[in-house]
Amino acid sequence: MFPYQLISSDSHIIEPPxxxxxxxxxxxxxxxxxxxxxxxxxxxxxxxxxxxxxxxNQQAGVRFETPERLTLQGRMATVPLGGLDPHAHVQDMDVxxxxxxxxxxxxxxxxxxxxxxxxxxxxFRAYNDWLADFCQPYPHRLKGIAMLNVDHVPEAVAELQRxxxxxxxxxxxxxxxxxxxxxxxxxxxxxxxxxxxxxxLSLHTGTRRWRPGADDDPTLVDIVERTNKEHDVRVAIxxxxxxxxxxxxxxxxxxxxxxxxxxxxxFMGRMDNIYTEQAxxxxxxxxxxGALPSDFFRQNIFLSFQEDAVGIQLRSLMxxxxxLWGSDYPHAESTFPRxxxxxxxxxxxxxxEEKAQIAGGNTARLYRFD
Length: 370
Hints:
Elements: E1 6-12, H1 19-23, E2 34-37, E3 42-46, E4 49-51, H2 62-65, H3 81-84, H4 86-95, E5 98-104, H5 117-135, E6 142-147, H6 153-165, E7 170-172, H7 188-197, E8 201-204, H8 223-227, H9 231-242, H10 245-248, E9 254-257, H11 263-277, H12 279-282, H13 293-300, E10 301-305, H14 309-313, H15 315-318, E11 323-325, H16 339-346, H17 352-367
Parallel strand pairs: 1-5, 5-6, 6-7, 7-8, 8-9, 9-10, 10-11
Antiparallel strand pairs: 2-3, 3-4
């Protein structure tokens, strides 16, 4: 018996080629996402917009044996069955000694770059239906994360409610919305609904919303930008904290997913410094009871990570209860099929109670794994 249970807070499915052509509402079918076989690779398009990266979303294990084969490009024909089929997915979890997984999209992450808002919402509704069906055979082991378009907040709230009714366990919102930061009052109904439904909201890497005149997300393809990709998630979290979102909605949980964690202690200290020592903070909104921004971070933010050894060393500054390990299966940077060995190495010397929390207990509590 292993001394603790592994539950992945960040795993993925791979969208099958016919997901949207089969499931999207009829009026959007001609503009639905579809795979085009090109000379160098297969590529997803929707409404003329290129999105997704098939190669890096299906190369679990390659980095351990043949890292020189890692590529952004790929073919749907080589997608592992575990990305497409729930039974195969659970079999791969068993191989990796992972008891449960929280499931995010793959190509869908970058679908936020599709400009048309009505089409995007239809894409997400179809995806959420498919994901609920994917998780249905294993409700105690697979927890799906819905996708939300927050361009129109009442519509996002309605989809969040629908997702909860279908049994999905949380929802994904874009790192960077189209028009307004997350300190804008228009998002209040979304925060209220997520709290009332006990649906954690996730900020996953790669989910910048399209904006007029903006380039595609460089953190996906540029090594310098990718090295500093946590910038967007810091902006989103700071906007929520300084706007008092978590003071008004103390049970709301928001996660930074696939950004590792060692950046968080500096960020927490920086927020406190601005709030307590600089005019722009001292003269701004004051929190009740002398609370600091870092207090809300520890109370309301969760951090999903893979292999951040430095972050584990700094865990007392964030609180072990904020840290959730994830495998990122079946993506190229995944810990599969060596998750147990990697987690044991990362948590070497950590007290047993904290090990159990970080490896799976925190995720089990947040997403209500039985």
